[in-house]
Amino acid sequence: MPTFAAPDASAHPLHLLRPDRLDSWLSDQSTHVQRWVKANGFTGREGEVCLIPGTDGGVDAIAAGLGDTSAAARGRFHLASIAQKLPEGTYKIASHGEAEDLQEHALGWLLSRYKFNRYKSGEPHSAKLICPDGVDADRLSAIAAGEFLTRDLINTPANDMSPPQLEAAARQLAQNHDAQVDVITGEALLEKGFPLVHAVGRASADAPRLIDLTWGTDGPALTLVGKGVCFDTGGLNIKPASSMGLMKKDMGGAATVLGLAHMIMALKLPVRLRVLVPAVENSISSNAFRPQDVLISRAGKTVEINNTDAEGRLVLADALTYADEAKPDALICMATLTGAARVAVGPDLAPFYTDDDELAQALQHAAKAVRDPVWRMPFHTPYETMIEPAVADLDNAPGGGFAGSITAALFLRRFVEHTAKFAHFDIYGWQPNPLPARPKGGLGQGARALLDALPKVLNL
């Protein structure tokens, strides 16, 4: 679990400075420090680090640049990039500018400690930070641990993260928090009313399954549903190699809700939590579902299959129906669902859909506060006709190429009839290029914003 260092009187002071505050800070320093900083050309630009020596020749303090206000607007977690440049030792933030930046700095430091080392060993990060005064260290550690879980699950390749192994990860999480897990596997999915989950996963060597984790006995009911497609070949509508290369991350929705579940349980939020993960592999075999098949969902709605590569919305449809039957106080769906969402907002923003304005406002406010960007997209009802084919109730992949993320969201909304507070996230779950606190690879999106918004959403 990522943690802060214990208080240490000998910790090196870390001064986080912007260019417009450098002169003011220098005026309060000794002549030695003033001369050293100026001689090294330190200006406070973003990512700049100046190690200030003491009389014994060792590091006495550090001046680090945050950049100007435009740098703050163009990026986040600037301390994370600085942390990578610091020598071994323990540090405490001595100068930091705005007080509201402290939580971001502290969380960024913890997130920068992440390293995926399952298959390749590496040197651990040796620099340590004492949690700043006024920052909840336990909360940030729980958040970082949940994010690390999400990243580990996404980064693990499909040969080690199949449906049974995703189930094992959920069971381990439940064991860690005294939660309960029930799993419906293989042919039992048909017997218990999950035909779409079964249809998508039946061609795989690993049986499809529905993972159902529950925790808590008091408070409002919160259900999280995460797409758990452990690998997606595209099925009989096989993906080209260029599109299949990252499909180990197609269970990113499941990884994100499991990471969020860790945060909720570690912080002991007063909710009745449920996590549903339809875990499948969309494979190719003689019994794979086919284009033009018409499948009957748990809800009784018929679905014409016009592309077997639009499988995520199928498994989610059954899971959402099951979740909605219990009428939870809030229902959140997370999925790496469409490439159209990436075209619309790129990899950094997590687009979400909801008809509940209060939920949307709470999410948007929280996202800004915790630096976890989200963007509301429209449930544009006039597009409903695009998902209504001639031969069935619904089309899983309407043609035309327009509004792909919206039509996928509208498809999912058809399976939520009793829960007013419903939101669907169409996330990417991947960091294509390294950025501060976000190395290249698996990435949780929207979880921190949701965690921060829950008290308002659920009146906790």
Describe this protein's structure:
This is Leucyl aminopeptidase. This protein is of the alpha/beta class. The protein is 35% helix and 21% strand. The chain has helices at residues 22-27, 31-39, 69-74, 78-83, 101-112, 137-155, 163-177, 188-191, 195-201, 241-244, 252-266, 312-325, 339-345, 357-370, 404-413, 447-457, and strands at residues 12-17, 49-53, 59-65, 89-95, 127-129, 180-185, 209-215, 221-226, 228-232, 272-282, 294-296, 302-304, 330-335, 350-354, 374-377, 394-395, 422-426, 430-431, 441-442. Strands 6, 7, 8, 9, 10, 13, 14, 15 and 17 form a 9-stranded mixed sheet that branches. Strands 2-3-1-4-5 form a 5-stranded mixed sheet. A 3-stranded mixed sheet has the order 11-12-16, covered by helices on one side. Strand 4 (89-95), helix 5 (101-112) and strand 5 form a beta-alpha-beta unit. The protein is elongated. The mean pLDDT is 95.
Short descriptors:
460 residues, alpha/beta, Leucine Aminopeptidase, subunit E, domain 1, Aminopeptidase, 9-stranded mixed sheet, 5-stranded mixed sheet
